[in-house]
């Protein structure tokens, strides 16, 4: 059974049609590349799955049941997490503090409770170990590489036992070595049975790590193919319109 199904989803903002009749499903433990030019509808689609937008038409289903979300906390409650391109990290805080930001662990009884730093450091360390990341819980984010920052953002999604993780341009503006590190993090999420939606302009990254690729153009889905059945040249043609549909 599919983890998430989109059935003929459309989204308009006044006269602007951002998504038009989009349908696809996501299976457990797969990496799906979501590609398209600027304005193709990728961000609107991701924000809908993440609970920021409700569809104007169509429906979402999770585990076979209708899924209605009005805000991101609803998506998180259903096991859907998003790692934004800017990562939304606090540079002046430690890795562990960023992992637990807004979800801090406490000990004692309110109003006399205090933050339980020891437990947060231990749990963050366990999450980094699961991801096989060299990131250390006490390291300050401002001293980290791009790959380590991604590890912190991904570890944060593991607190809620996520089923689906949306990653928005995770390999943009980082070095080749750090790109390899981030792609390995994505593989480890997949190996743990988590579905990853990789929103990216970087063709080599998608073909390196994804199982399927979905291509958007002008708000429509023009392809949904296994990576093994496609090629970078075909996807480029679909993005630009040189190939209408595949």
From TrEMBL:
It comes from the Bacteria. Residues 4-243 form the ABC transporter domain. Keywords: ATP-binding, Nucleotide-binding. GO terms for molecular function: ATP binding; ATP hydrolysis activity. This is Monosaccharide ABC transporter ATP-binding protein, CUT2 family. PANTHER family: CARBOHYDRATE TRANSPORT ATP-BINDING PROTEIN MG119-RELATED, SUGAR ABC TRANSPORTER ATP-BINDING PROTEIN. Pfam families: ABC_tran (PF00005). It comes from Aureimonas jatrophae. InterPro entries: AAA+_ATPase, ABC_carbohydrate_import_ATPase, ABC_transporter-like_ATP-bd, P-loop_NTPase.
